[in-house]
Amino acid sequence: MPPASLQESCLAELDLSHILRGRLAVIRGGADLLATPEPLHRTALASVASAIAPGAAEQLAERGLERLHTIAGVEEIRAVRDELDGCLRQAARQLLLRFARALPPQGRRLYVSNHLGVRIMPPQAAVDGREGELTDYTGFLIPAHAHVDSWFNTPVNSVNLWMAVSRVRRDNGLIIWPNAFRRPMRHDGVRLLPGQPVGDPVEVELNPGDLLLFAGDHLHATRPNTGPETRWVVTKRICLGPPRYHSRATGWVPYLDTRLLNTPLRALAPLRSALTVGHARQLVRDAGRLAVRLRP
Ligand SMILES: O=C(O)CCC(=O)C(=O)O
Ligand SMILES: [Fe+2]
Fold first, then answer.
1. What CATH number has the domain spanning 6-294?
2. C-alpha 191: how far from chain center
3. Given this model, what pLDDT does residue 1 score?
4. What Pfam families does the record tag this protein with (predicted)?
């Protein structure tokens, strides 16, 4: 049975195999430590300046990123999210490689994903009634229902780096159900079906700059934001050992061998994840979709 609460840890002592066995670890200031030279909250403010106006960024620099919804409507919040996503792509990849280098030897190769989740969750009242038009932003602007990442495109041995850009409170954070870890669960491909015991939840609270590590195979959900603050989080993913995809996953994404990146062999970095049954299944799915599109 995995421990049911967050445990403080530090990068130099982190063992990803413990995370993959269910441990929930928080590294205080870990995201700030890894996001050099520009801390995430500064990039966030720069995105507010370009997506809304420099004056808006100045106001938030003074009053806190958590006040975004008081100066911006849903369209502007979405524009900030998209802008920050664009600004962070490269930097977030470097951050993840810095994370990999900061770890003690893990005994297995590490594989990094291009996944980047920029998750800005305003108070529910700000998005109420807009869920229909924001479905593509589920988990990014509106709450993600209880799910396990390997139902989608994430390997079963992937670890989530969940980085607090703003303050994360119990009333706007993440919910994890540790007792449901790796239990068979019925779902509709997107969310857990009701009527299944999942045990007591852990409700994540963090300070800006903290880093939470949890296995993507934990049952987890956005805590619908019933509080007064907007919550900003950025996520990245890393695999311990070659990626292994769930046999009933609905998608597949490549994971890159960190040893080959930044070498002349970098084109081969995704090869190991391409040589998986998960990828073969994805090719079959793609072919099926193409056949449907081409049907007269
Ligand atoms: O931040 C959230 O609300 C959802 C996060 C999530 O589902 C993930 O990081 O995989
Ligand atoms: Fe998730």
1. 2.60.120
2. 16
3. 42
4. PhyH (PF05721)
